[in-house]
Amino acid sequence: MSKITVLTAYDFNTARALAEAGIDYILVGDSLAMVAFGYADTKKINLGQMLACTRAVHRGAPNTKIITDLPLSEVIKNKEEVLKAAQQTIKAGANIVKIEGATKETLEQIKLLRENNIEVMGHIGYTPQSFDKPTVVREAEKLINEAKTLEEYGVMGIVLEMIPSEISKKITETIKIPTIGIGAGADCTGQVLVSDDMLGRYNLINPKFLKRYANQYEDSVRAFKEYIEDVRLGSFPSDNNSY
Ligand code: KIV
Q: Considering the entire predicted model, what is its pTM?
């Protein structure tokens, strides 16, 4: 069976391009905090920002399945607020909400969302993400138990982040739901990357798991320089650009 493909988007045009390319799922990830807002970690994002991005992505890719992260600030609040946040996220255009971790509290929240027929994706390994301490998580027994528990609680799939390949393989063989890897080797059921990373738009980090498919940051600097020069020299706008 062919592997599941997932990439992130936070805006209309990236979503359009992903849909046109034929992606299986678009993730409106809380990586937004780092790559679009410039924060040092993913914890700073709030529900309002996630909802605005989910709406933009849904407008750009109305027929593609969207997974949206429930921001950590909402996840640690009381049960009613988590349910309300998830319902708002679905109303904004997401099909699935993602919750990081497998703590007792997280599991209760997943249970509540599943009881209310909300699809949930789990996420274990290196969470929450931050700029300065990306760490490979090597506690095999703990990770396998977390994956099994998340499956029992009814998640539809689990993101495995920065986990050694042999542990991810074992998890993928142990549970029946899909595993989506990022820095978790080739044996996962699918793969996810942050689009800004793989496009070279966010080029401040270069983890081993990343493959760059473009150099958009450098392309942008080059184009901006060309424009600045054209305007300064008076070669833009030309007659062709004038009414
Ligand atoms: O927030 C995000 O983009 C994610 C990916 C790193 C999987 O959770």
A: 0.96
Residue 226 is encoded by which pair of tokens? 């060309």
Over 80: is that where the pLDDT of 11 sits?
yes
Is 127's C-beta closer than 6 angstroms to any atom of ligand 1?
Answer: no
pLDDT in tens, 90-148: 999 999 999 999 999 999 999 999 999 999 999 999 987 666 677 898 999 999 999 99
Q: What is the C-alpha separation between 51 and 212, in angstroms, rounded? A: 28
| Ranges of each domain in the chain | 4-212, 216-243
Question: What are the catalytic residues?
Answer: 161
- Tell whether ligand 1 has an atom less than 6 A from the beta carbon of residue 72: no
CA–centroid distance, 29 to ligand 1, in Å, is 5
Q: Could you give phi then psi for residue 202, rounded to 5 degrees?
A: -100, 95
The neighbouring-strand residues paired with 25 are 6, 65
Ligand 1 mean position, distance from CA 226 (Å): 34
Domain 4-212 class in CATH:
alpha beta
Name the residue with the closest Cα to ligand 1, atom 1.
29
Show the tokens assigned to 174: 């142990």
33's tokens = 């905090």
Q: Which is nearest to 56 in space by CA: 44, 45, 46, 68?
A: 68
Tell me the average pLDDT across 17-41: 95
